[in-house]
Amino acid sequence: MRETKKELKVPAIKEGTVIDHIPSRVTFKVMRILDLREFNHTVSVAINLKSKTLGKKGIIKVSNRFLTEDEVNKIAILAPNATVNIIKNYEVKEKIKVSLPDEIHNIIKCSNPNCITNNEKVKTLFHVLNKSPLQVICHHCERVMESKDITLI
Amino acid sequence: MRETKKELKVPAIKEGTVIDHIPSRVTFKVMRILDLREFNHTVSVAINLKSKTLGKKGIIKVSNRFLTEDEVNKIAILAPNATVNIIKNYEVKEKIKVSLPDEIHNIIKCSNPNCITNNEKVKTLFHVLNKSPLQVICHHCERVMESKDITLI
Fold first, then answer.
1. A126: closest CA among A10, A134, A95?
2. How many other C-beta atoms lie within 10 A of the C-beta of residue B130?
3. Of B43, B90, B15, B29, which Cα lies nearest the Cα of A60?
C-alpha cells in the first residue's frame, strides 16, 4: 500500500492561496493571523520542509480563500520573505511578494509593560522604522522593537 | 504553472506516521497532545478534508516519528475513530485503530471548578467509565464528564 494512495494524500487546491517561504517557526503564527483554524474549507500546513534560502520553511495552502492586501501585509510582519500564490483552476495565476505595511494596527504587543496598551483597553499601533532588519516604534510609548521582541496579541 | 509543481507540494513521507480520520475540529488539539509544533522534522496537517464517515476530517503526517502506545491512546480521547498508519519506505506497514486507555493521566481538565486539581498542584486523573459515547469520572472529585465537557490541560 503506497503512502501516496488517495485517502492519505492532501489534494492540490483548485482555487485558493498558497503561502510559501514562511520561516518554519512562525508558520502556525501566520495561521493565527489569518484565523485559519476557524476557516471551513480545506487548509493544509506543513512545517520543517527543506528550503535553500530559509533552512527550514513552512507552507500554508487554503482552498477557496483569497487574501486581502491588508492580510498579505500582515504576513510580512512575521515572514518578510513569504510569497503568496494565487491559485485559479489548479494553476498559479499570480505570485505576490509580501510587503511590510507602514503601520501595524493591533497585531503585535508592545514589549514595554508600562505602555498604555498593556494596561488599558487601548489598541496597539506601531510605525515601521526599518523594513529589513525589521524595526518598529510604538505609537504610544515610543518603545523601539526588533524582530526578536515581537509577539502577537 | 501547475500548483502541483515540486516546490508547492508536500512530499510523501518515507518513514513516519500518518494519523487519519481525525474529526476536523480537534486536529490541532491532537497536534498539541503530541507536541508536534516543536518537532524538528517535517509535519503536515490538513483540516476540512471530505470524509464519508466524519463529514470533515483532519490528517496529520509526521516524518521520522513513531508514536508510543501511550501516545496512540491519548489520541483516542479526542479522536476515537482515528487510525494511525505507520509508514516505512513510503508504504503503510501497519494500521492501528486507536483505543481509549482505562485511565487518563494529566491530559484533560476537570470541569468542576472546586476540584482539587483546579486549585492545587495536583495532576488530573480520570477513569474511563464508557468508551462510546465517552464518559469519564474524575478520580479526585468524582465529577462525571462527557466528550463535550472535555478540555485539554
1. A134
2. 12
3. B43
H or E element in which residue B73 lies? helix B69-78
* Residue whose C-alpha cell is 518515507: B14
Predicted complex: ipTM over 0.95: no
Amino acid identity of residue B44, one-letter, is: S
Whole-structure pTM value? 0.81
The pLDDT tens digits for B8-23 are 455 678 899 999 999 9
Q: Which of A8, A13, A92 sits opposite B59 (nearest CB)?
A: A8
C-alpha distance from A44 to closest chain B C-alpha (Å): 4
Q: Which residues of B touch A9 (CB under 8 A)?
A: 12
Query: Distances in Å between the alpha carbon of B43 and those of A41, A58, B140?
Result: 20, 9, 37
Contacts of A90 in chain B (CB under 8 A): 2-4
CB contact under 8 Å between B3 and A48, yes or no, is no
* A69-91 per-position pLDDT tens digit: 888 888 999 898 899 999 999 99
